[in-house]
Structures are given as structure tokens and as C-alpha cells.
Amino acid sequence: MAGMNREIRSYVLRRGRMTSLQRRSLTTLRGSYCIPFSEERLDLAQLFPDHREVILEIGFGMGDATAQIAADRSSQGFLGVEVFEAGVGKLLSEIKRRELCNVRIIVHDACEVLRAMIPDGSLAGVHIFFPDPWPKNRHHKRRLIQPPFVRLVAEKLKRGGYLCVVTDWDDYAEQILAVLGAEPLLANRYDGYAQSQGWRPETSFERKGRKDSHLIREVYFVRRDV
Ligand SMILES: C[S@@+](CC[C@H](N)C(=O)[O-])C[C@H]1O[C@@H](n2cnc3c(N)ncnc32)[C@H](O)[C@@H]1O
Question: pTM above the 0.90 mark?
């Protein structure tokens, strides 16, 4: 992970108020569905014995998309990584409400999780929906989508595995397209931005972006056969 400065975090820990359901879900369900961060590689086959394909979602927020996609694709396992505890509580409550058997969560910095826990060539897909835009120029270095991070993600994908990133922030969209386009392990499935992926449900940050009349842009790249 040369070049990735881990002193610079791509998030600030939001303290947002937790509902009593979110808090209760965190207390009672964490042990069943959350995996503690560890420096050891995960055994994905052991974690998802009934699911041959595993999709990683980075920064799931309140987990709207995670829960819906996991419900729609019961044959795949979903590993969600998030640091926002209210969101983790919300997703845990949805896992329980929808009786989802194919979702696990890691509450930790996704860059560290990728580096330490995810085996190379193991993921069928990676979802990054509305990464924090860090709009001020002096904060651009905190943006998640940077070349060393994208290289790391690409290394974790299986051949043919996909990386789907969506943003409502114009100059971040350009940066994402350029950075992914410059990564030799990835190939763009589209000519420039992707068409809207029908399987992707609207998230709360997407709703906010649309309300502010922001254009939603998606990119969809696949791991090359190299
Ligand atoms: C703008 S929100 C989008 C949330 C959700 N994907 C949506 O579309 O509503 C970005 C989320 O990414 C999380 N995040 C940012 N950097 C992260 C990192 N390095 N590891 C884990 N989560 C991260 C933040 O905590 C935040 O909840």
C-alpha cells in the first residue's frame, strides 16, 4: 500500500444521535453480525459458507443500499465496512427485520480492512456509494478515491470482479473516472461514465444530492485478466 498516508482519514467520526432501536441493535446484534478488526486475513469461505461470491461495500452510511441489495441477491455474501455507529446500528436492525443471512459488518477504517483482512483476488465486487466529497481544495487529500487506494481495491478483486462508485459531486466524479481509468488492473465497462445501474437502490445521500439538484454520476470498472 505504498503511497497511502494512513495519518489522513477519509472520514470524521459523526456523532449523530442514535435512535433507541439503533442502540439496542448495536448492543444485542453486534456479536452475531460484526467481525472485529484484525491484522489476520479473513477466510471468506468460512465467513460465508453458503455464498461463493462476496461483495464488499465501503462506507454504507445507514445501510439502505446494503440491506436492499443483500435482500435482492441472496446468493451473494455482503461485507459492509463503516465507522459511523448509528449507521451500523441501523443496518443491524434491518438485518434482523429482513432476516438477512448474507450480511456481515466490520466497524473500522476500510483502508485498513482492505490492507489487512481481505485476501487478494477474493472479491466479486466492491460498492462505494457517495464517498465523502471533501469539497474544499485543502481537504481533497482526504478523498477516499486516490491512486494507492484504487490499486489496493483492484488487487482484492477477482478477475472480472467489478468496482462501482457513485457520486453527486462534479469534480470528484471527474477525479474518480480519471483515477480508475489510470489503474492498469482495471478496465472501464463503459465509454466514460456508466449508465445508471438498475440494481442500485437510492441511498439517503443520493436523495440529498438530488434535492440539491446535483447530477448523479456512476463509474463501473472491472478487474482485468492480467
Ligand atoms: C457521504 S456518506 C455516504 C453513505 C452511504 N453510502 C449513502 O450513499 O448514503 C460516506 C460514508 O462513508 C464512511 N466512510 C468514509 N471513509 C471511510 C473509511 N475509510 N472506512 C469506512 N467508512 C468510511 C463515512 O463514515 C460515511 O458514513
Answer: yes
